[in-house]
Every structure is written in C-alpha cells, then in structure tokens.
Amino acid sequence: MIVVGEIVTLKENKDFRRIYAKGRSYPSAVLVSYVIKNRCGCVRIGITTGKKIGKAVLRNRSRRIIREAYRELSDSVKPGYDLVFVARGKTPYVKSYDILRSMKKELKDAGVLK
Fold it and tell me: Where are the domains of the chain?
C-alpha cells in the first residue's frame, strides 16, 4: 500500500486477486470497476492496464486518465472500500471526462458514492 498525494494505492498482487475473486464488477465500454469493502476505513485504489491496451505509452496514458478521473470523484467516495479500475481497449483513446462519466455511473451503481 502506497500513499500518492491523498490517494492510497494498492500494489500487492494478493490484494488484486482478492478483489477480482470476491468483489463485484461493474463494466462499461471504457472501464471495468471492481468494488469490495475493506476493514481499514479508507479508500484504496488500484489501476490495471494489460498488454491488450497497447504499448507502454498507451498503457501509461490509460493509467493517467483513470487516475485523473478518480481524483475528481475522490471527495464523494464513501470510506471503507477497495476499488480496482481495469482499462479496456478504448480507454487510451478517450478523454478523462468520458472516463469520469463512466466511473461515476459505475460507482453510483455500486453504492459507493455519498
């Protein structure tokens, strides 16, 4: 677990596997969100971009725009959840406000937003 600014990030493979196995998924065309409750009372996020997204430049762009979209929503997320965002094939080609709109809908469906 690493703190970047005010965002607590997940880095351990075991955390990602636990969230994939036991968490609920909320897919859209540009993003898949996995949500599960945690015991630490804070919000932790992880971002995954696979090789299907493209080369390193596209994967890094995908991570940047997902992180920026989350940063705008971070104040309205209830504490006590682990979130994993998985980039899809379209992710590096859209703007962060498209990701934000998709992320807001998925997190609202999950009941994570205040």
Answer: 2-110
